[in-house]
Design a protein that fits this description.
Elements: H1 3-13, E1 17-19, H2 21-29, H3 34-39, E2 45-50, E3 58-64, E4 70-76, E5 85-91
Parallel strand pairs: 1-5
Antiparallel strand pairs: 2-3, 3-4, 4-5
Length: 107
């Protein structure tokens, strides 16, 4: 497991979570409940990690909602800080752009 994902999981378990306005907009647009985006994090897998992303370290993770549908959530931690875990965006991955199990982009 990724150390970054483990750190996000620890922060979420302690309730140290923030959702950006853009994150709320995207959750709403794809009809994803906050509890689905955050609640299934223990079973999530890292799709892409960007520890040196210029704004904040972040990772795209594959998660599932309560119905088992795939969700991609981009989690970050503010640069130079150790908390909170931040939901940057979340969406249902487009099956035309992702492999069947959704962890890799189609080429």
């Amino acid at each position: 497991m990724s150390e970054f994902l483990a750190q996000i999981q620890r922060l979420v378990a302690r309730g140290e979570v923030r959702i950006l306005h853009h994150g709320y907009d995207e959750l709403s647009a794809d009809r994803i409940l906050v509890k689905d985006a955050v609640g299934g994090l223990q079973d999530a897998q890292v799709v892409e990690e960007s520890p040196d992303y210029p704004k904040d370290p972040c990772a795209l993770v594959l998660d599932r909602d309560r119905q088992g549908n795939p969700i991609h959530v981009v989690w970050g931690i503010p640069k130079g800080a150790s908390s909170p875990a931040v939901v940057i965006t979340a969406y249902h991955p487009d099956p035309d752009r992702w492999t069947e199990d959704f962890p890799r982009r189609k080429t």
